[in-house]
Amino acid sequence: MNIYVLVKRTFDTEEKLVVSGGQIQEDGAEFIINPYDEYAIEEAITVRDAHGGEVTVVTIGDEEAEKQLRTALAMGADKAVLINTEDDVEEMDQFTAAYILAEYLKDKEADLILAGNVAIDGGSGQVGPRVADLLDINYVTTITSLEIEGETVKIVRDIEGDAEELETSLPLLVTAQQGLNEPRYPSLPGIMKAKKKPLEELELDDLDIDEEDVEAKTETIEVYLPPKKQAGRILEGEIPSQVSELVSLLRSEAKVI
Amino acid sequence: MSKKVLVLGETREGALRNVSFEAIAAAKKVSGGGEVVAVLLGEAVSEFGNELVAYGADRVITVEHPHLKSYTSDGYGQAFMAVVDQEQPEAIVFGHTAVGKDLSPKIASKLQTGLISDVTDIEGEGADAVFIRPIYSGKAFEKVKLKENGVVFITVRPNNIAPLEREERSGDVSSLSVDITNLRTIIKNVVRKSAEGVDLSEAKVIIAGGRGVKSKDGFEPLQELADLLGGAVGASRGACDADYCDYSLQIGQTGKVVTPDLYIAAGISGAIQHMAGMSNSKVIVAINKDPEANIFKVADYGIVGDLFDVIPLLTEEFKKVM
User: Which family does it belong to (chain A) (predicted)?
Assistant: First the structure.
């Protein structure tokens, strides 16, 4: 089975954000594989181990993203591809990313493409479905279970807390929701092996993409932090009296009940 | 310049969702005085048309087909694109719901346009509209607009944009016949997990539990309070990782991002990744044994105490006054 995983390098979830000059400051920040993409990588490895084939992880970014690709290889992916857009693309949006990925994937005859259902930085959740549309294959988002039996793919997906059971077939793009699996940590032998696994670097020229074709459709005008919340009130006294004070505050002062 | 705007209306369990009325209000702003046309897709949905008019839609188009009974991206995609072909809108608004999130990228891709998703506020109107959306799960915000002329396409986060006042108005409700074919996904079953049908992303009240809840059973008093207040129960990653509850309840940067009117955090210490998912709630109450817990820094009201003492008392107290 020919399996591809779309991954993104993101800020660690434990990072505090600093904005200056209208941009998020990246200096000194820890970066990770987008946590939802980790579920996708894990699932890809599981599917390959059960059905055979090869797992290729693909990302768009600059050289820094090699670290996350090596991590994916150490988890057990077979090959990695970095589409380096540093010199060619100034502003990227979901249209741009999907276009580039689809151009890369269009002649790969992928059976299964996996991605995270959302990246924890931009949070748009668009790239997966957009890629599927451009490749004209079916997609299923926010999946929590995947079973492939011959031609049939049985999936459970999370729809706002409910579980939807469905059937579809390959080729297919799925996006991973939390609960799909428990991503493995790279083992020491895995890390050693990963150093020797192929990591291909491509630029837009290699994919015959003109810079104009991938010009972002949207524009970010400003990035800012939400206003700091004022410290709230810690109630005092015996617990029962605190509780009745709270109820009356919620009704009369906060007016939310 | 005024715009013609299409809005996708959504139903859930036999009623229109609130987010559809919010999407109409957003569409009014985006239209800058242009026409707002609501779209309803389903097996039998025309009965809901007039209600969308009452909330501000100028016109409603329904597409009814047995293949639209359950949502699939193929079925809804074909139906919605047929409406787009007929109406040639200049803007589109969806709710940022399970359906909206799944369908909007497909439609945006087909229209080769930008999609500004999960919008929480709109500045300006018509051609000058600028959209505000959270990034890093609410740790920061960005203002975004479409770069060039094209279809302006946004999804709006539930609970953030106020719906218009309901008023009796009249507007045309018409149907469009679409041949829905070649569905690549077959829906077999939906297992209801969310209690009482109150969805976390739309809940006005959320009672969330963390590691302090200690066990699966520990969520029971929280559920009781949530039921009383017509709210939903949520959880921190700690509680989910400890297997006290299902991951579908998780609130945080990995998990759901919520903005209810009232968020009660019980036994949650307040890790950065959790706070990203809830700190934009309107009113936050923290209940924790540890007076140093981080959660108190974002709380409007705090009670230092054991949640198993406080929550049942809170339920009793609310019962008295409601």
Answer: Belongs to the ETF beta-subunit/FixA family.
